[in-house]
Amino acid sequence: MLNPSDSSTEPATDPASRGEVRRSGSASEPSAEPLRIMAFSLDDEWYGLEIHHIRGIERDREITPVPQSPSWLAGVFNLHGLILPAIDPRPLLRGSAPGWSPDGVMIIFQFDGHQAALLADGADEIYELSTASLEPQLPTVEPRTARLIRGSVRVRDRLIGVVDLEAMVDLLLKG
Amino acid sequence: MLGWWGEMVATERAALPPSVRLLIVRCGRYRLAFPSDEVRGLVSAGEVVPVEVGSFEGVLWREGGLIPATSLAPVLGLGGVKGIGGGHGVLARTDVGLVCLLVDEALDLVEVAREQIRDLPPLVVRVMRLEGLTSVADVEGLVLVAVPALLLGAKRAAELIAAAERVATGASTAPPGWLQ
Q1: Residues of B in contact with A67 (CB under 8 A)
Q2: In CATH, what number does B18-171 get?
Q3: What number is the ipTM of this complex?
Q4: Which of B86, B108, B169, B176 is deepest in the core (most CB within 10 A)?
Q5: What is d(CA A151, CA A136) in angstroms, rounded to the nearest whole number?
Q6: Chain A within 8 Å of B139 (Cβ-Cβ)?
């Protein structure tokens, strides 16, 4: 299992693809706390997850569906003896129907004692940015979605929404 | 695979037995494991006589009485699955009597160590009444361990038993043998 948190100084070997660490924005500012995110895709949109929450990336795990579960819960799976929920973030972040493909990746994250997998189409590079480069959400973004996004960063031609994992886990626990 | 048929010998309920026998069934895309002491037996769904009244699929004649049969699919949130068709009926014990739960197929009867039944993760536990998860040889992925009576709910079980009793009352005036 890939552990992206090991790639703090060296380009990672393969965070689902190349996993290279790119510095962007104003990360060189000495006073700014760096924001290190892994970008992942959902259809044609890009999101970012702070890498200190990420425990690895998995593929090809059999997901067992759970009856009467909310749309975001794709099911559960066994990861080295741990039973973890597999979360399809589409209904949460895009307000769309679940649609994860088994060809995608499972980003294993941990937050506040909860470990789970976020199902994405693909995981891309790890970016190191400055917190100051985080732009607020546009007011046109739907409030339910907006509260799960800390803000957006522009990296090259991409607009990446940085996921607020605390808000997301809180939402998942409260339903 | 399934190496037995018909009535299952009920095991004695004991506090924290080291192992538990599980009946593995499939209903739609779900694979469920019922503890064998919660199940009276297993029948072919073909034995169920369709009944055109009430919100259940049919009745089963057993031990001098009628047992209501209902599909497990709606209980699991599977829409559009109704009718007896093929498959199996699980004779589930409830507080008010036996209820036949129709499933697509019975897959296996296995014995697993109790410690092999794992708790559900906190993000899943509130979804519905499930006792845990386990993995079983020859069955891909995880299996959801559930007590059928709890899945069905006491109210629904009581409704089904009452409906079957009404059918039985009606049957007493029907031509002999119509339900055999």
Answers
A1: 30, 75-78, 127-128, 144
A2: 2.40.50.180
A3: 0.78
A4: B108
A5: 5
A6: no
